[in-house]
Amino acid sequence: MTRSAWLHWTTLAPLTATVVLALSWGSHPGVVAALGIGIFLVGAVLSAVHHAEVVAHRVGEPFGSLLLAVAVTVIEVALIVTLMKSGSDTSALARDTVFAAVMITLNGIAGLSLLIGAVKYRMAVFNPEGAGSALLTVVALAALTLVLPRFTTSAPGPEFSGAQLAFAAVASLVLYGVFVFTQTVRHRDFFLPVDGGRGPVDADDDGHADPPSDRAALASLGLLLVGLVAVVGLAKVESYPIEDAVAAVGLPHSFVGVVIALLVLLPESIAAARAAAQDRVQTSLNLAYGSAMASIGLTIPAIAVASIWLDGPLVLGLEPTQMVLLLVSVIGAVLTVVPGRAKSLHGAVALVLLAAFVFLAINP
């Protein structure tokens, strides 16, 4: 890497975040210190996903969307587990965070991308076979892990029994694995950016900027690993301040899950919006649905394994209001994806559903 590359914020952010982690590890920071650490945490998140995107550009689409989704999920799992070990009532934290991620991706990231694409190019164009396959997998995962626990009877409350949780975890991994095979091997062309008749996106018409060199990709891979370590550690340091802040402003404890999801999905939102502005709405939907899928298909199995060491129950079943929001969001997403193109109305409807979710999370 050149000297100017080393001085770039995407290089400095994970390195300085690691230094902050070493200085703050084991502490319970106050308000001012927590805000400062939070800045470095956000910087580490943004830089980590940036470097994931650089590596992804080297290997090509749709591997790019897959790598970004996995990187974000690692961050999400780290935040959930560290907060669940904080000792307070966190039995529903995994559910609240995963559900928030699903709502933000289905309605927020996808809705914003469709709105940007439709406003800028009159119609947002994408491949309904690829987007539909991803949406189908998200719906199946959400039903298996978030809806069914509300109706099972082997364990008290909206929880899975041990055997049921193990089945849900294995089924989630199987569905996610089959989808990844479909996306990257069997039907890779369904997930590539669609030419809407407005000309190539870049010089080689592959839907991406020209890929970086091997050296740059390897450097980004190393910085990605450093950034993820920093995120995991700083998440542990920030676990108490996050809960204290939510309680201090009088919000329900479940809003902690929304905060986590908003934090980890911010880089994905920026990347998806940028892709939509470049007439690559398919890439935006890959990011949105891929993140929702990874959030369920990888987080739930990870939490299932972590529950062996975590104390207390693991509540996964959605509340009735949440199930209604999920149902309406799924119906809207299906009606949007089927035609293969969307108007600005579709994006606006999705964003209104996201606003309803956030409002009801604050004022249930």
UniProtKB/TrEMBL annotation:
GO MF annotation list: potassium:proton antiporter activity; sodium:proton antiporter activity
Topological category with respect to the lipid bilayer: Multi-pass membrane protein
InterPro entries (alphabetical): Alkaline_pH_Ca-Antiporter, NaCa_Exmemb
Domain Sodium/calcium exchanger membrane region: 32-184, 220-362
Chief location category: membrane
Annotated TM spans: 32-51, 63-85, 97-119, 131-151, 163-182, 216-235, 247-266, 287-310, 322-338, 345-362
Domain of life: Bacteria
Gene Ontology CC, one term: plasma membrane
Keywords: Membrane, Transmembrane, Transmembrane helix
Subcellular location: Membrane
Protein's name in the database: Ionic transporter y4hA
Organism per entry: Nocardioides agri
Source lineage: Bacteria, Bacillati, Actinomycetota, Actinomycetes, Propionibacteriales
